[in-house]
Structures are given as structure tokens and as C-alpha cells.
Design goal:
The complex is a heterodimer. By secondary structure, chain A is mainly alpha-helical. Chain A is built from 15 helices and no strands. Chain A has a single domain, classed as MetI-like fold (Orthogonal Bundle). Chain B is built from 21 helices and 15 strands. The chains are: A mainly alpha, B alpha/beta. At the A-B interface, loops of A face helix 3, helix 4, helix 12, helix 20 and helix 21 of B.
């Protein structure tokens, strides 16, 4: 009972802010709730069974949006949230401590800057000639100008999100690197290892758990993120070129130029996302053997 | 004596407090929510402050007026009203596009006004055709706030460079009305301007860069209908194909840039077209004019610069053979949650006068809604309004139907698909109709 008592506050939070919303979204997805029949009374909503999911399956762009999401999550995760974060951590951990701190502080700026301000900066940078800053530099240097927004929208979507994502992995990795016992490094130095050899043979093997944690947490986080994409491209240009699943759920349920949003249909998109997230979480826990991470140490430290 | 005087002062203060309390208690609270681009559209809400005392005197009540006005995006603005209504904190009066009547009246968020309109003579003077877009079925749910036209702006500067005489340029609106200068002629002119190097490829013609009411006039102009005689949703395959052929052809030929949809309004679209030196023909809205004058060409002379370099005309004739435009009146609607709908309507009536509506019309270049207003000196002598008011004779409007958003989303997806060259016009028709039927089911007739 003591254990359950200790878990109760956290359990209550999970119940209130995860299970309950999931149940509500699941229920909404089985109704035809829209602005034209809007009510917050669950009993007054019209139950339509799985019709929203049937509509979703028949949606000719659902497949495209699904693969957009996979591409977005994998690219951002692989290039920035893990790789770039690891590189920044390794570099800043191996230079002067104060300089390393300053560099890391700079990398945190994208995360702490207000989303709208952050995206306004990017939009101004990538705008077409003669308005965009990058194109103004191109012009000054005599280089050709580009319409980055329409030519390479994914590059900027991934850059914008990746620059924010780096900071999370960077903090986790840096703290892990800093906590590597000095005697391991000293032993490695005595053996005559170089910087790269120490990173390859000492640091990286000891970062396994932080790496797996960052992959798990950030991939699930990216799966549901759409705020920056909404502000940067709103899923465009053209035909759903940068539209991701979470953004579609938002567009359907909460945001339409002509009003009358489809809460029920949008919830069906959200339910699919919840299912994917839960499945991925279970897979991660099994594949990455998280039970080993939280297992009691075999050596008792006094 | 001293004590007595003090007591009198205390009593007087208590009396004053009590009177003030009674007044505050009796004041009728009216909250009004408006969306307006500052400063030119601020009269949408600010006009109410000017008539507050007049209505108080007429009704013999005190009004506690709360005006909430900003330039939020339409999607957020509309969602806000729906959520506020459900939460029981909706404004008494909401100003929004007339097409919201379709969903909001169906949901019971706004009240019918037929029985109340007769109490105010001001409404009798509203241009009769405007009432059509304020009804769901035969019931009136809104009072027109303004009207506008969505014309083609043409660059006099660039047409001059192309070799057009002043007479050719000035007579363009008349030739468009007469059907002598059609949409096909406009495309040919734009193509010629590109070939001659007057404008760059992609800059012969621009429409708006995001979804909006404008796009429907291409469909109407090619003979399409959104509602049948019974008020049900329909889609005409032939008109849809003609529309997608037209818009797809614009980007395929290079007359219009294929990435126009998605271009930023404020960073690219307005600054480019307001100068009149880059794009030859621009499909916009009358309200763009004061925005350009104030925000984009003010240091070049504002209005004077625009008059010198830009003209406006109806959308030249497409398949139907008639020039066209579309008006999208904003409408004052009264929330079903309002405790004082009579007071709310009295306030709306008080600003539905030539005096008040002219301020908005002149400042924001929106067209008048009252017959008397059209005859008033201020309106008639306004060069801009007098150059555009005739467009109301050629106008169309959006439908009021709860399924309109699903219809328009699918229609716009087809436009995006064909303009980017991802599909043929026939493919775009298939995409749009498949999406309409998937989401509206039996609620739409394909013909």
C-alpha cells in the first residue's frame, strides 16, 4: 500500500492529463461533432460509430500526410535531435569549460525563444528576393537567389525544428559525459589514447542509455509536434507538401478559414496518433530494454 | 454644528454611492466583438461608442459597452465565438462573414432577426440584394455591416510600358463590362507582357496567396453553382474542370507563378503588388487599396500614387460571358446567449446610417450598404468608391450552408493541386469531387 500511496500523486496526474483526454478524444472521434452542432455535453453528441475512421481511410491524402510525418520525425531525429546534439555535447565538453557553457547556452536560445518570434525570424531569413535576408546576402555576393519557401520547404521545416530539438539531447548528453568517472579517462590517457579514441571507446559506450532515452522521448515528441510547421509553412506550399499528421488533426478539429471545424473527424486523426505513440512506446521499451535501465545495480555502492 | 455638518457629508457620500450603485446595477452590459485591420477598419466596432449615448437616451437605459476589436486570423476568430458560446461568455454582437450563418444558425449560436428588424426603420434602407446573403433558408440572421468588391487591379504603369495608350488603359473597366476584354484577353495581354520583357515570368497575373472567398468567382464565372434550388450542396463537374483548366493554365504557361499559394501576404504579396511595377494584373479586394496607401506606398504619395499607377475593373468574363465579382459582406449577428438582444439590435440600427457607415466605407474602401448612403455627397464624391460601386451590380456571394467549409476545402485542394502542376485539371476535378463526396456523403450532389 505504501508503494501505491507514493505513486498516487503521479498516477493521478497521468490519469487526469493522459488517460482522461485520450478517452474523451476517442469518444469525440465516434461522433459527428462540428461547429454546426457544437456542444460540450458528451451526452448530447451524435454517435456515428466508426464513420470518421472510414472517411479518414478514404481520404486520398492521408497516406501522403502519414509518410510526410515519418520523414519529418526520422530526419529531424537523426540529423539534429540525436546526431547534432551529440556532436555539440562532445565538442563543448572537450573545450574550455566556460566557452563550452557559452556555446551550449547559445544552442538553448531556439528552445526558449517564443515560437512566433522564432518563426518570424526564420520566415524573414528565408523569404524570397528581394525581401529575405539569405537572398539579400546572395545578391550582395553575386550569387543566384532562391525561393527557399517553395523550393526547399522540408529543409527549413527540419532546420527550424532541429535547432530547437538539439538543446534537449545536448543537455542530457553533456550531463552524461560530465558524469563519466575521471579514472576511466585517466586510464585511457595512460594507455596513450587520442581525443577521438577516447570518444569512440570510452564516452560513446557509456552514452547508450542517454541515447536511447533521447531517441524514445524525442521521436514521440516530434510525432505530435506541429506548432513550428503551422507557423512556418502551414503544411504547404502546394498540396500538403509539409503537412504532418498532428497538423491535420489541428486543421480539421480546430482551425478552418471558413469556420465550422470538424471536431469529431479531427479527433479521429488524433486517435490514430495516440495509437501510433502507444505502440511505439511499447516497442521502444521492449527493444531498448528499459527494464535494464531501471534495474537495481548489481554492485551495492556504500 | 461640526458633528452635524460631518454627518451631512457622510450622508451625502452614502447617497452618491447608492445612486452610483443603482446606476451600475441597472446598466445593460453589451459586449461587441469585431475583427478589423487597423486603422482603416476600426469603425466596425468604434462606431458603437459614438451611438452609445443616443441609444441610451432613446431606450432610457444605461449601457455598459464593451468593445473587443483586433485583427485576429479568421480561423481563430470564428473558433473563439463557438467556444465562447458554449462556455456561456459569447459577446452579444459578433461581426463575422455572412457564411458563418450556415453553421452558427444551425448550431443555435445566433438568433433569427426577422421579427425584430421591423422595429428599426434604419434597416429598411439596406440595399435589398444584400439581405440574400444574410439568410439561412428564408430566415434573416444578420445585419449587413459592409460590402465590397473583389476586382482585378491592373498596373497602368506596366500597361503603358506595353504600349497601351492612356485611352486604352482608362477604358479598360468599360470594355470588361461590355465583354470586349475577357479573361482570355487578360491572359493573352499578360503573356505578351512577359514575352516583351515588361514583367518577369510568373508576374503576368496574381491571385491571393491563401484560401479565401475570391476563388469561388472562377467557378461561378464558368457557370458553376454551389447550391441547388432546394438549398442543397451541388458541384458542377464541367464548371470545376473549366476552372481548373483556367488556373492550371495560368501556371503552366508561366503567366502566374506556380508557388503563389503559400507566399506570405505581408512580406511578399502586398509589398510587391502595391508598387504596381512588378505584377501586371492582380486579383484582390477593394479594402487592399487603403492598406497599400497607408502601409506600403505612403512615402511615395499614398492614394495619389495608387490612383496614378493602378486601376480596377471587374473580373473579366470567363465561360459565362459576363464580367463578375464577389462580395463578402461582413454581418453583425446577435448571440443566442445575449440577455439583451433588443438593446444589441438597437445599437446596430443606430450605426446603420449613412453618417456612420460612410466613415467605414471611405476609410476602408468598402462599399456602402444603404441606398441613402449611395446618394450621399460624401460617398458619391469619393473617387475610389464611385469607381467601384457599380461592381455590386455584377456581384455574386458565398453560400450560407453548414457544409460550405468542406465544399470549399475540397475545391481549394483541387486548385492547389493543379496550380503546382502535380495533377492535370481532370485529375484535380477527381481529387476535389472525391474529397467532397468522402466528407459530405449524401449531403452533396455531383452533376
Amino acid at each position: 500500500m505504501t508503494a501505491y500511496g507514493f505513486m498516487a500523486p503521479a498516477g493521478l496526474l497521468v490519469l487526469l492529463f493522459f488517460f482522461l483526454p485520450v478517452l474523451i478524444v476517442l469518444y469525440l472521434s465516434l461522433t459527428n461533432l462540428a461547429s454546426a452542432n457544437f456542444t460540450s455535453n458528451l451526452a448530447e453528441m451524435e454517435f456515428i460509430g466508426l464513420r470518421n475512421f472510414q472517411t479518414l481511410l478514404n481520404d486520398q491524402f492521408a497516406k501522403k500526410i502519414f509518410f510526410n510525418t515519418i520523414f519529418y520525425v526520422l530526419s529531424t531525429l537523426a540529423l539534429f535531435n540525436v546526431t547534432a546534439a551529440l556532436i555539440v555535447s562532445l565538442l563543448t565538453a572537450h573545450i574550455n569549460r566556460r566557452a563550452g557553457f557559452i556555446f551550449r547556452a547559445l544552442w538553448i536560445l531556439p528552445r526558449i525563444t517564443t515560437s512566433t518570434v522564432y518563426i518570424l525570424i526564420w520566415r524573414r531569413m528565408m523569404a524570397e528576393a528581394p525581401f529575405g535576408i539569405i537572398n539579400q546576402v546572395n545578391t550582395a555576393l553575386g550569387w543566384p537567389t532562391w525561393n527557399y519557401g517553395s523550393e526547399n520547404p522540408w529543409v527549413f521545416v527540419i532546420l527550424v525544428n532541429g535547432f530547437i530539438g538539439i538543446s534537449f539531447g545536448m543537455i542530457i548528453f553533456t550531463s552524461a559525459i560530465e558524469s563519466i568517472p575521471k579514472d576511466l579517462m585517466n586510464a585511457s590517457l595512460v594507455d596513450g589514447s587520442s581525443y577521438l579514441q577516447r570518444i569512440r571507446h570510452v564516452t560513446l559506450p557509456l552514452l547508450r542509455w542517454p541515447l536511447l532515452f533521447v531517441v524514445t522521448y524525442q521521436s514521440l515528441s516530434l510525432l505530435t509536434s506541429f506548432e513550428q510547421i503551422l507557423l512556418l509553412t502551414d503544411g504547404g506550399p502546394g498540396l500538403y507538401r509539409t503537412e504532418v499528421w498532428a497538423l491535420t488533426a489541428f486543421h480539421r478539429a480546430l482551425s478552418n478559414y471558413f469556420g465550422n471545424t470538424q471536431w469529431g473527424y479531427g479527433s479521429a486523426f488524433a486517435v490514430v496518433l495516440v495509437i501510433i505513440g502507444v505502440v511505439l512506446a511499447v516497442v521502444y521499451m521492449r527493444v531498448f530494454r528499459f527494464d535494464e535501465l531501471v534495474a537495481e545495480p548489481r554492485i551495492e555502492v556504500l | 454644528m461640526m458633528i452635524r455638518r460631518s454627518l451631512l457629508v457622510v450622508l451625502a457620500l452614502l447617497l452618491l454611492t447608492a445612486v452610483a450603485g443603482v446606476q451600475a446595477q441597472d446598466a445593460v452590459g453589451i459586449t461587441i466583438r469585431c475583427k478589423a485591420s487597423p486603422p482603416e477598419e476600426d469603425w466596425r466596432c468604434n462606431s458603437f461608442a459614438e451611438v452609445e449615448e443616443q441609444v441610451e437616451a432613446a431606450l432610457g437605459i444605461a449601457i455598459d459597452l464593451n468593445l473587443i476589436q483586433d485583427n485576429a486570423g479568421w480561423a481563430d476568430y470564428k473558433q473563439e465565438f463557438v467556444l465562447a458560446s458554449e462556455a456561456g461568455v459569447a459577446p452579444d454582437i459578433i461581426l463575422s462573414g455572412h457564411e458563418d450563418i450556415g453553421a452558427w444558425a444551425t448550431a443555435g449560436l445566433i438568433i433569427p432577426l426577422d421579427d425584430m428588424i421591423g422595429m428599426h426603420a434604419e434597416f429598411e434602407d439596406i440595399v435589398p440584394t444584400l439581405w440574400d446573403s444574410h439568410k439561412l433558408g428564408d430566415t434573416i440572421y444578420g445585419i449587413p455591416q459592409d460590402a465590397e468588391a473583389r476586382p482585378v487591379f491592373y498596373s497602368k504603369l506596366l500597361l503603358g510600358d506595353l504600349g497601351w495608350s492612356d485611352e486604352d488603359i482608362e477604358s479598360l473597366p468599360d470594355r470588361v463590362i461590355a465583354g470586349e476584354f475577357t479573361f482570355a484577353d487578360m491572359i493573352a495581354t499578360a503573356q505578351e507582357a512577359i514575352d516583351e520583357g515588361v514583367v518577369d515570368e510568373g508576374n503576368g497575373f496574381w491571385h491571393r496567396p491563401s484560401n479565401g472567398p475570391d476563388f469561388l468567382y472562377y467557378y461561378y464565372g464558368n457557370g458553376g453553382a454551389v447550391l441547388d434550388d432546394m438549398g442543397g450542396l451541388v458541384v458542377d463537374g464541367a464548371a470545376l474542370l473549366a476552372t481548373y483548366e483556367l488556373l492550371g493554365g495560368l501556371t503552366e504557361s508561366g503567366v502566374m507563378r506556380s508557388d503563389l499559394i503559400g507566399v506570405d501576404w505581408n512580406e511578399v504579396w502586398h509589398p510587391t503588388v502595391a508598387q504596381a511595377d512588378t505584377v501586371l494584373f492582380v486579383a484582390g479586394g477593394t479594402w487592399n487599396w487603403p492598406n497599400w496607401a497607408i502601409n506600403y506606398v505612403a512615402d511615395q504619395g499614398g492614394d495619389a500614387y495608387l490612383f496614378e499607377n493602378i486601376g480596377l475593373t471587374l473580373i473579366p468574363a470567363m465561360g459565362t460571358g459576363s464580367a463578375i465579382t464577389l462580395t463578402h459582406p461582413l454581418t453583425y449577428m446577435i448571440s443566442s446567449g445575449s440577455d439583451n438582444p433588443d438593446v444589441a439590435l438597437a445599437l446596430i440600427a443606430a450605426i446603420t446610417t449613412p453618417e456612420h457607415n460612410n466613415k467605414h466605407a471611405i476609410d476602408s474602401f468598402h462599399l456602402g450598404i444603404l441606398n441613402a448612403q449611395l446618394e450621399s455627397e460624401a460617398y458619391a464624391n469619393n473617387r475610389l468608391l464611385s469607381s467601384a460601386h457599380y461592381m455590386l451590380d455584377h456581384t455574386t456571394a458565398l453560400p450560407n450552408h453548414p457544409g460550405w467549409n468542406a465544399w470549399s476545402n475540397a475545391y481549394f485542394v483541387g486548385i492547389q493541386a493543379v496550380e503546382t502542376g502535380e495533377v492535370t485539371p481532370e485529375g484535380a476535378v477527381d481529387i476535389a469531387i472525391a474529397q467532397m463526396t468522402n466528407e459530405l456523403g449524401d449531403g452533396i450532389t455531383v452533376r
